[in-house]
Amino acid sequence: MAASYTFLFLVSSLLLASYFCVVSDAATDSPNIVKGLSWSFYDYSCPQLESIVRKHLKKVFNDDITQTAGLLRLHFHDCFVQGCDGSVLLDGSASGPSEQDAPPNLTLRARAFQIINDLRARIEHKCGRVVSCADITALAARDSVFLAGGPDYDIPLGRRDGLSFATRNATLANLPPPFGTAEVILTSLATKNFDATDVVALSGAHTIGIAHCPSFSSRLFPNLDPTLDNTFAKNLKLTCPTATTSNTTVLDIRTPNKFDNKYYVDLLNRQGLFTSDQDLFTDERTKGIVKSFALDQDLFFDKFVKAMIKMGQLSVLTGNQGEIRSNCSVRNNDYVSYSKTVVEQVVEDLENLSDEF
Ligand code: HEM
After folding, report:
1. For ligand 1, is residue 265 a contact (CB within 6 Å)?
2. In which band, very low, low, confident or very high, does the pLDDT at 353 lie, cut at 50, 70 and 90?
3. CA 251 to ligand 1 centroid distance, Å
4. What DSSP line would sit under 161-199, residue for residue?
5. Do residues 41 and 139 make contact, with C-beta atoms less than 8 angstroms apart?
6. Three-class DSSP category at 310
């Protein structure tokens, strides 16, 4: 009898132990999500949401694959300044310039803003005004990664759109500069709770897209940065004959439009475009991570997805906070008064016209 009790106790202990292992594995594998966001947020209010976004973006990228980079960067610039609240999408108003007018945002693509508004119109047509512009931007970035060849992954949704935008100084303070060393970038991103692995993984977004000469010309003028590969430097000088030329070049010389781990291979070959990229292979805290991502694309994808899900939840507005904009470029209140002004103007014109006859 005692033997069978001991046996039962052993079996149940083993079962309990394996249960806790599974639970704790699941807990460490699935990313934490902030209160108010959910993996199934629009399941009832807009079940077609993700297919509308993907279908439209497939069409857009079939015409021009380079637009993936513009949309990915837009989400980053939204999230880092004042949180992922769609504030970067707002146009300036009479009360002042918008985030878009701050220097780091001047090179965001006009077409990216337009694509977000096109998506918004398509979604509103099918579901009504239920999906925020901040969520549309997050989904567009997610699909850009996948449709450029990167990993496919779920993101939590339920963000609301902000009612204000950040000042020029706040924008500058929150987006680190391309001439920053790894020390600068690590310190800057640590304030948002990103560790060295997150920093190296997020920088891997530079596997697609372009940059304008002024973003890296401090490496060419007045003196060549000695960490630059010789041939790479020569070609950059051909693209940028002076420090202020507005020409552009690709961020990843191996596969500029493909989301893969070649950006890290570039760094190993001293062909990273920005100081903030190349220095990740100099700094001892990040060098090993760069090497591991260059050797193992799956590892890069895994860490990139984790860091993106984290980035996509920075200071989000949820619940009753903010609003769901009916035009991603304008706050609803401003939009109403803008529409009214247009209507009033038309009525006035018509009245003037009828006076003339
Ligand atoms: C870690 C610090 C970062 C710095 C210093 C930085 C800086 C820059 C700069 C200066 C440009 C080029 C602007 C131009 O001259 O046109 C650029 C482009 C780009 N960045 Fe970053 N970035 C950083 C992180 C990120 C992150 C986290 C993402 C996304 C997750 C990202 C995605 C992109 C993309 C996709 C482009 C190409 C945009 C296009 O082709 O339109 N960057 N970045």
Report:
1. no
2. very low
3. 9
4. B-S----HHHHHHHS--TT--HHHHHHHHHTTT--HHHH
5. no
6. helix
Residue 330 pairs with which residues in a beta bridge?
Answer: 327
Percent of the chain past pLDDT 70, that is, above it, reads 84
On whether 183 is known to bind a ligand per the annotation, the reply is no
Reference 317, options 154, 87, 32, 49; nearest CA is: 87
Closest CA to 334 of 142, 23, 98: 98
Find the range with the poorest average confidence among 3-17, 74-88, 161-175: 3-17
The neighbouring-strand residues paired with 250 are: 210
Residue nearest to atom 20 of ligand 1 (CA): 73
User: What does the angle CA 314 – CA 96 – CA 111 come to, to the nearest 5 degrees?
Assistant: 60
Residue type, 166: A
Tell me the chain's radius of gyration from C-alpha atoms.
24
Cα within 13 Å of Cα(38), Cβ side: 8
Whether 210 lines ligand 1, by a CB cut-off of 6 Å, is yes
Q: Would you say the CB of residue 171 lies under 6 angstroms from ligand 1?
A: no
User: Is residue 125 flagged as an active site residue?
Assistant: no
DSSP, res 357: -
Question: What is the Cα–Cα distance from 47 to 332, expressed in whole angstroms?
Answer: 24
Q: pTM score > 0.85 for this model?
A: yes
From the centroid of its chain, how far is CA 247? 24
Tell which residue, 155, 140, 157, 163, has the closest CA to residue 46: 157
Q: Cβ of 174: how many Cβ atoms within 10 Å?
A: 21
Sign of CA dihedral 24, 30, 31, 32: negative
Query: Ligand 1 pocket: which of 61, 71, 73 to mutate (most atoms <8 Å of CB)?
Result: 73
Give me the percent of the chain exceeding a pLDDT of 90: 82
For residue range 138-186, list pLDDT tens digits in order: 999 999 999 999 999 999 999 999 999 999 999 999 999 999 999 999 9
* 110-127 helix and 49-63 helix, angle to the nearest 10 degrees: 140
